[in-house]
Design a protein that fits this description.
The structure holds 2 protein chains of 2 kinds.
Chain A: E1 4-7, E2 10-13, E3 19-25, E4 32-38, E5 44-51, E6 57-58, E7 67-73, E8 76-81, E9 90-98, E10 102-105, E11 109-113
Parallel strand pairs in A: 2-11
Antiparallel strand pairs in A: 1-3, 3-8, 4-5, 4-9, 5-6, 7-8, 9-10, 9-11
Chain B: E1 4-7, E2 10-14, E3 19-25, E4 31-37, E5 44-49, E6 55-58, E7 61-65, E8 71-76, E9 85-92, E10 100-101, E11 105-110
Parallel strand pairs in B: 2-11
Antiparallel strand pairs in B: 1-3, 3-8, 4-5, 4-9, 6-7, 7-8, 9-10, 9-11
Classes of the chains: A mainly beta, B mainly beta.
């Protein structure tokens, strides 16, 4: 079946630094990738939708300059949290979709900003 | 955004018992999906429903797409300890690319 690899699984960074999270579709080409954020004991909140070769579409309230999304190829999307602050600490999950495979989720990245 | 409400919020059941959880929305969806999330992991698809009234099984799991297209339920029969986790419903609207997630049901199975 479709596999989405997300890396890193955990990252701790200092306030003010930037962190890049990668999301790869391993055995299929993903026309669209999604980035979610999940707070403890809460549901997944869609942050942005990215299509290969075009700018990401951000959900209301999500700062596009803070959460930079790049979808350079049909198998790779990256989320960069710029100038991270403690309130950015969260669980970030990517998802890739194709018409054939539906939605497949990565295993998530636990970001802790200290 | 869209709100999908799941009930119950959490459940504590004895191993071997059956489980039922619901997902309701004020909006119509053309696809309903049920996911399970283990701690520190991404959601894993359990069942996908594409037609109103559809009843689909996957092993001990059974899910139905409500006739009104505004609700869905998931049943788990003869629960086992590895059923522990958070169950999310998700809906997709016609013509939309993204999913809207429910509030989640946290299941604890007591051996």
């Amino acid at each position: 079946g479709a596999v989405v690899s997300q890396h890193p699984s955990r990252v701790i960074c200092k306030s003010g630094t930037s962190v890049k999270i990668e999301c790869r579709s391993l055995d299929f080409q993903a026309t669209t990738m999604f980035w979610y954020r999940q707070f403890p004991k809460k549901s997944l909140m869609l942050m942005a939708t990215s299509n290969e070769g075009s700018k990401a579409t951000y959900e209301q309230g999500v700062e596009k300059d803070k959460f930079l999304i790049n979808h350079a190829s049909l198998t790779l999307s990256t989320l960069t949290v710029t100038s991270a602050h403690p309130e950015d600490s969260s669980f970030y999950i990517c998802s890739a979709s194709t018409h054939r495979s539906g939605y497949t989720f990565g295993s998530g990245t636990r970001l802790t900003v200290v | 955004g869209q709100q999908l409400n799941q009930s119950p919020q959490s459940m504590f059941i004895q191993e071997g018992e059956d489980v039922s959880m619901n997902c309701t929305s004020s909006s119509i969806f053309n696809t309903w999906l049920w996911y399970k999330q283990d701690p520190g992991e991404g959601p894993v698809l359990l069942i996908a429903l594409y037609k109103a009234g559809e009843l689909t099984s996957n092993g001990r799991l059974t899910a139905q797409f409500g006739i009104t297209r505004k609700d869905s339920f998931l049943n788990i029969s003869a629960s086992i300890p590895s059923d522990v986790g958070i169950y999310f419903c998700a809906g997709q609207k016609t013509g939309a690319n993204n999913l809207f997630f429910g509030t989640g049901t946290r299941l604890t199975v007591i051996p």
